Each structure stands twice: as C-alpha cells, then as structure tokens.
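During the no-cost extension, the postdoctoral fellow (Dr. R.K.) reprocessed legacy sequence entries with the updated structure-token encoder. One reprocessed record is reproduced below for audit purposes.
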Amino acid sequence: VTAEDGLGLVGTCFRRAGNGHRWVILVHGYGRIQQNTWDYAEKYLAHGYAVLTPDLRASGDSEGRYLTMGAKESRDLQQWVARILQEDPDARIVLHGISMGAATVMMASALPMPDNVAAVVEDCGYTSAYAMFTIQLERLFHLPERPLMDCVDFMSREKTGTALSEAAPLLAVPHTKVPMLFIHGDDDRLVPYEMMQQLYDASNAPVKESMTVSGAGHASAKAADPVRYFQRLFAFTDAYTK
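Re-encoded structure tokens follow.
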C-alpha cells in the first residue's frame, strides 16, 4: 500500500481455506519487522483467522527513514484496513499490536475507521513515547526531563514532521469506538506496568478488559504464559468477529 505521505509499505497476507471473514492485523514493535509477529500469526491462523503482517514505515521492506512511535504508523493502518476490504468487503478485523505496535493500534482506534474494525488488542503499549523515554532517562542515566526531552521533541518534529509527544495513546483511548483488550506483564522494565492501568482508566471503549501476566517482562506476556494468553485473547476477539 501507499502511505498518505507517499511511502511504499509492504506486508504479508496469510490465509487458509475456510478462514471466513475473520482477520487480524499484527503490528510489530520498535526495531522489529513483520517476521517478529509470525509466531502470533501461526496461532491466529490455526484459530481460523486470516492474518496481515505489515512492515511499519522505516522497518523491514517498507520505505522511510524514521519511525514516529505510532503517530504516523497509526494512520498507515487505515491504508492496510482498506487493502483488506478490497479482498474481503465483509471482513471483521482485529488490530493487535505489541509495544510500539500496541501504541500504534491504540492511536488507530481513535481515527476514522470502517465498521469492519471490530476490536483492538494492545500488548504492553505506553501511555506516550515522551513519558516512556523520560522514565528511562531518569532510571538509566539519572538525568532530569528538561532540557533534554524538549530537544528530543523539537528534533523529532524537524526530522519526521511529528513530535515525539504526539505519539500519545493516552490521548487517543478516550476516543476509542471499539472493544479493547489491554495486556501487560507486571515485570516490564521498559514500559512500566502502571501505564496499562492509566490507559485502561482513560479508555472509553464500549467494552474493555485487561489481563496481567505475572512475572512477564516487556513484550514477553505470550512467552511467559502462552496457554492463558491465547485462551484469553481468543475469548475476547472471537466475541466481536463472528
């Protein structure tokens, strides 16, 4: 597909006979590529979903020089949803993201989307990229937020056209119009576990659920408890895609 700013974006579609009209778009995290979601894709396929795994801008085979931590990537998902509907106008689509991908799907949930988008799953997403980096700056380097983060915000806008502070799912979830499942490990040292509760509390999704995975670090909820992860995941997504 072509992004609104002209970048060429690449993804892979997996379908099996009998998948019907249930779809999921799996969105990878920062520094990753679509292949890093294929273990999730395998489970979705076996459960009867067709799967689309995009390379986000500036990742894998997609064009672009800069990531925007979900700000522009969320709008790119509108193009992928439209592409699925070219293939299957009756599609019922789940948006499932991990880490930066989770921020992306949360922000996408507040954008204009067709009714075919049925549910959102966010796994270890941050309240805002700005807040996440500020916490790590203080934790790892014992540096205060200002003036460094002000400079980062300014430079990100200069380089990408989008400030880091604009990648803010906490401002998006009050406008979510579809059911949302929040997942987080309670030993996450990159995106603090408390961020999930902040996002959950701020969400105005018509239905919202949360799942805590004990002992799981960042983006490792599935690995820490795979049976419970997929049981809870499919109990949620199946309710809105049938």
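The two ends are 27 Å apart (CA to CA). The mean pLDDT is 97. The remaining legacy entries will be reprocessed before the final report is submitted.
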